[in-house]
Amino acid sequence: MKSSQFKIRARQAVGDADLRSKIKKATGISLLKREQVVSEIADWEDLRRRAHELRKETVDNIDSYLRRFIESARRNNAIVHEADDHKTANKIIYDIIRRVSAHTVVKSKSMITEELHLNTMLEENGIRVIETDLGEYIVQLAGETPSHITAPALHKSKEDIARLFHEKLNIPYSDDPVKLTAVARERLRDEFLKARVGITGVNFATADTGTLTIVENEANARLCTTLPEVHIAIMSIEKIIPSFDDLPLFLKLLPRSASGQRMTSYVTCINGPRSYHNPDGPRQLHIVILDGGRKQLAKHPAWKEALYCIRCGACMNICPIYQSVGGHAYGSVYPGPIGSVITPTLFNMKDAQDLPFASSLCGACTDICPVKIDLHHHLLFERREIVNRGYKSSVEKIGMVLWRWIMLSPGRLEFAGRVGWFFRKLLGKNMPAPGWTPHRQFPRIPLRSFRSIMRSDKKHGK
Amino acid sequence: MENKLLYRFQSRIQESGGWCEISASGDGISDILNSKYMFEKEKIVISGRVAKELQLSGLPGMCIDEVKPNNRRALLGEAKLGVTFCDGLIAETGTVVLINHPSEPRELSLLPEYHVVIAKQTQLYESLDKCFTKIKQLYPAGSIPSITLVSGPSRTSDIEKTLVIGVHGPVEFGVIIIGSR
Question: How high is the pLDDT of residue B1?
């Protein structure tokens, strides 16, 4: 799937009334719950500002924070691996699994592993990967990819899931979420007890104490980080925050923004493998840190803000475009407004050139972002970059030059209005405007412009 | 002040699907447990810290310290109820702070179907900031054990945003606070 086919997939998604109603319902519930728990915090704006400053501080000094985090993690007896690119990260992870001769790994939800296409790589090498987050388990059974960063199966109805479980797990058809969840619990508990390697992502990594923090509701990440002998935690460099003292701030922002909870059911702060200080848990803790173009992006004066993201998904829920097309249309691991900012800047601007245009620039994403990323302005600036790189057609360019020429003179604007009125009158409802009229009617243009009404009113002394 | 925190903690826990009871003294705890759970003694496993740090003995169930480390996982996998102590209660969010401890392994609050925490009213903090500051004072850098924050039973909303309680972790979560209203 490529982000270069956004328009095609968006058109399909918009035409799928069933999909749209599922997405509308799910995002609506998320927004309502968020509003309830955010409104009770009097200094929410202050918290956002502080979080923004901390994210900026970290990204601006990423090399030094990275060094400090690695030192702290090693002091905690973690084995730290640095990977410059995706391929290297995948090889490191595969080698760790092979060294302990494991054939199965249990895995909790992690966007970075989606970015790495880790499951595909491991499965091609004969290693069974079991997604244990319920939403991810559903998506994996269906052979699909997540459509939302915190609610991966948001695009599926309970009937879809009932049919899927009935077919793939050989159980009687039931669309009761309680029953479906119980089936997943039973199937996966066995896997947890047998697995020798657990893979997780990381929500926050503190530079001063080397603590890995994982936020979740189901307890599958707790099982992945407690039962297997080996835990592999995979993170990208921007997961680092300066200090353990900053964790409470981010733990106040993330669950409220992501799932509308004051706190998720579980937050695990890992300070190393089994040791004198940590009497239980895995014997080995590997931390794989991916750069994947981020150090380069951190140097860009504006787009470095894309690295401030804490992956709450609130910008997706509030986005009128996401609500209409869903996550798959974006064709990127990261959908929605933040995805449209990250995908062109971190991966490939040419392939993802449609994404910055998938926005009404209403700014709702910027207002909701818990770390105050100026999302809609970045989308606007990316549009300029895409034009400057010459990815847009020459017809569009000529059109814009003409538009500018008209807008620069009141007389030309008025004349253009008359020409528009003439053609609208002549062609009626069939007046063509590419990209617009196939779905909507061209609006009526009044004969007398606002300008001419003003002029005659003035003359008559009104 | 403490009463206000206690009240807030209690309502937060209840809002996230857990229960919270207040016991005037340690003596009432057995009664609360017995009134809620009718499991055989072997199905209830109790943290060693409950006896050592809370000086509570005679609770229904067996102490984890009496079980060899190698047998613990099998025992806990079959257990119905895990009873732990804790290292802090956060009123703002209804959160229990559990610090990894030899007599209170992580699996004890994870594998059994039910998890009950016994705490003291004096362990209440207004917010997580204050509790973390305290933890940093207690443990020098580089020796903080792993920490688990629990704010309710295991849950998911992955199917049509319908809340389902009890996915991979405990299906029920409760807190008994020794103190007074």
Answer: 59
* Least Cα separation, residue B94 to chain A (angstroms): 8
Q: What is the distance in angstroms between the Cα of A99 and the nearest Cα belonging to chain B?
A: 24
Cβ contact B148:B89 at 8 Å: no
Pairwise CB contact (< 8 Å): B168 & A192 = yes
The helix (run of H) or strand (run of E) holding residue B125 is strand B124-125
SS3 content of chain A, % helix, strand, coil (to 5): 55, 10, 35
For A126-154, how does the pLDDT look when each residue is reduced to its tens digit (9 = 90+)? 999 999 999 999 999 999 999 999 999 99
Model pLDDT for residues A245-278, shown as the tens digit of each residue: 999 999 999 999 999 999 999 999 999 999 987 8
8 Å CB contact between B157 and B99: no
CB count in 10 Å sphere of residue A194: 12
Structure confidence at residue A160 as a pLDDT band (50, 70, 90)? very high
- Spell out the CATH class of A41-295: alpha beta
Q: Quick one: pLDDT at residue A446?
A: 82
Give me A401's structure tokens.
């030059």
Please tell me the distance in Å from A339's CA to the nearest CA on chain B.
21
What letter would DSSP give residue A347? I
pLDDT at A393: 87
Please give the residue of chain A at the shortest CA–CA distance from B164. Answer: A178
The pLDDT of residue A462: 64
- Percent of chain A past pLDDT 70, that is, above it, reads 99
A258 touching B (Cβ < 8 Å) = no
Residues A31 and A379: their CA atoms lie apart, in Å, by 22
Residue A88 has pLDDT above 70, yes or no: yes
Fold of B2-178: Rossmann fold (3.40.50)
Contact A281 B146 (CB under 8 A): yes
pTM for this predicted structure: 0.94
Looking at the partner chain, which of B100, B127, B156 has a beta carbon nearest the beta carbon of A217? Answer: B156
Closest Cα in chain B, distance from residue A251 (Å): 9
Query: Do residues A130 and A353 make contact, with C-beta atoms less than 8 angstroms apart?
Result: no
The pLDDT tens digits of the residues spanning A207-239 come to 999 999 999 999 999 999 999 999 999 999 999
- A40 and B CB contact within 8 Å: no
* A217 in B contact zone (CB under 8 Å): yes
Query: Measured between beta carbons, which residues in chain B are less than 8 angstroms from residue A208?
Result: 141
Give residue limits of the domains in chain A. Answer: 1-40+313-392, 41-295, 397-459
Among A78, A121, A30, CA closest to A313: A30
Q: Please, which contacts does A43-52 make with residues 24 or more away whose CB atoms are closer than 8 Å? A: A47/A249, A47/A252, A47/A253, A47/A370, A48/A253, A48/A369, A48/A370, A48/A371, A48/A372, A49/A372, A50/A249, A51/A249, A51/A250, A51/A253, A51/A310, A51/A370, A51/A371, A51/A372, A52/A308, A52/A371, A52/A372, A52/A373
pLDDT class of B81 with cuts at 50, 70, 90: very high
Which of A280, A283, A285 to probe by mutation at the B interface, max B CB count within 10 Å? Answer: A280
State how far the Cα of A390 lies from the Cα of A387, in Å rounded to an integer: 5
Nearest CA in chain B to A186: B168
Who contacts A366 (Cβ-Cβ below 8 Å, separation ≥6)?
Answer: A372, A373, A374, A375, A376, A377
Q: What values do phi and psi take at A103, rounded to 5?
A: -110, -15
Return the domain boundaries, chain B.
2-178
Tokens of A367: 């207002």
In this prediction, residue A448 carries a pLDDT of: 81
pLDDT of residue A1: 53
